[in-house]
Design brief:
The chain is α+β, with helices and mostly antiparallel strands. The protein is built from three helices and eleven strands; from the N terminus they run E-E-E-H-E-H-E-E-E-E-H-E-E-E. It has helices at residues 57-64, 84-92, 143-150; strands at residues 3-9, 38-39, 48-54, 72-79, 95-96, 99-100, 105-109, 129-136, 155-163, 166-167, 176-180. The strands form two sheets. Strands 1, 2, 3, 4, 7, 8, 9, 10 and 11 form a nine-stranded mixed sheet that branches. A two-stranded antiparallel ribbon has the order 5-6. It is globular. The termini are close together. The relative contact order is 0.27. The model has no long low-confidence stretch (mean pLDDT 93).
């Protein structure tokens, strides 16, 4: 029977079990006490939220491989007001230095109820911020951050909320749930 681990990866943790600089970089080894599981995809050190780990190589490939187009939903705090024009550009796909992105689903949302981030996002009194929900079906390096920057909305906080049918709701940062498939 295959295992699937749903982990709420905290800010500042590397999406790997080894290789962190001792005392400087935290890894999954400090969080996940399940043997023989490996990340199905990555989540940047400065991003938070759902990271899936599994002991099943085929499932790992199906989750991580862009050809399966598994949707990933992100809650993104951006600097500036998310205008209808910016959201339409994200929805059509934006040109990045490595080519056009696939069309995405993008909508403005109210600030979500989330856990506190450590360290907190820097607050700037004279610069507004807003939140968007962005669903993409590919996984290029730092794609969401590059997409929001391309439409003039630099990312302040990035939380992956869902991958396909799996979500992070109900898990505090550093907590995980094991599913037997």
């Amino acid at each position: 029977m295959s295992k699937l681990v749903l982990l709420n990866k905290p800010y500042g943790v590397l999406s790997q079990f080894t290789g962190g600089k001792e005392g400087v970089e935290d890894t999954l080894a400090h969080l996940v006490d399940v043997p023989d599981v490996y990340p199905a995809g990555r989540l940047d050190k400065d991003s938070e939220g759902l990271l899936l780990l599994t002991d099943d190589g085929r499932l790992q490939a199906r989750i991580a491989d862009p050809r399966y187009k598994l949707p990933k939903t992100y809650l993104v705090q951006v600097e500036g007001e998310a205008s209808d024009e910016a959201l339409e550009k994200l929805a059509r796909g934006v040109k990045l230095n490595d080519g056009m992105t696939r069309p995405a689903r993008a909508k403005r949302i109210d600030p979500p109820v989330l856990w506190e981030r450590d360290p907190p996002v820097r607050f700037r009194k004279n610069v507004p911020d807003s939140w968007i929900a962005l669903e993409i079906s590919e996984g290029r390096n730092r794609q969401v951050r590059r997409m929001t920057a391309a439409v003039g909305l630099p990312t302040l906080r990035l939380v992956r909320w869902r991958i396909g049918q799996w979500g992070v709701d109900g898990l505090a940062p550093g907590e995980y749930r094991v599913l037997d498939l």
